[in-house]
Specification:
Elements (H helix, E strand, L loop, with lengths): L20 H8 L3 E5 L6 E2 L15 E5 L2 E8 L7 H4 L6 E6 L6 E6 L19 E8 L5 E7 L11
Parallel strand pairs: 6-8
Antiparallel strand pairs: 1-2, 1-3, 4-5, 4-7, 5-6, 7-8
């Protein structure tokens, strides 16, 4: 299995757990889905079988815009696992979703949809607006990545 950028993923692919299947289904369709507590209405991630805010309430899945703001970021440097070592340096972002900044997600930064992860631009900064894009690495798996938001973006996702 080869990811964009030409590196082999092999055993590094995440397992698709039953409670996370709607997230991965959405990713294949280019849409970002997270869970929402049926009792409180709060969004949460990562997926789980019960709400952290009302443990007896079954969570529901909702589509979110895919728009976010960089909360933090880093650049991993070697030594790294071999598939990632070949890509270094690249930026990994922790973003806060626009719908609820308490919900944070991780993903690689890419300059544009379809581009491989790469070195961050000099102006990459905490607080910068980004949008979700999804890159296919197998028929079943599309990885979440983040790209600069166009000022006209009203919804994230692959284009």
């Amino acid at each position: 299995m080869t990811a964009p950028g030409g590196f082999a993923l092999g055993a590094l692919l995440p397992p698709i757990a039953a409670e996370a299947a709607p997230f991965w289904d959405g990713a294949r369709r280019g849409a970002l889905w997270v869970q929402r507590c049926a009792e409180t209405g709060r969004l949460f991630f990562p997926p789980r079988p019960t709400s952290p805010y009302a443990p007896r309430a079954a969570p529901e899945w909702v589509r979110v815009s895919g728009l976010a703001t960089i909360w933090s970021w880093c650049v991993p440097h070697p030594p790294l696992l071999p598939p990632f070592d070949a890509l270094s340096p690249y930026a990994v972002l922790l973003v806060a979703l626009d719908e609820d900044p308490r919900v944070r997600m991780v993903g690689d930064w890419v300059a544009r949809p379809g581009a491989p992860p790469g070195p961050p631009p000099r102006d990459l900064a905490i607080g910068a607006p980004v949008r979700a894009v999804f890159e296919p690495v197998s028929p079943e798996l599309h990885l979440l990545r983040w790209t600069p938001r166009d000022p006209t973006d009203s919804e994230g996702g692959s284009r």
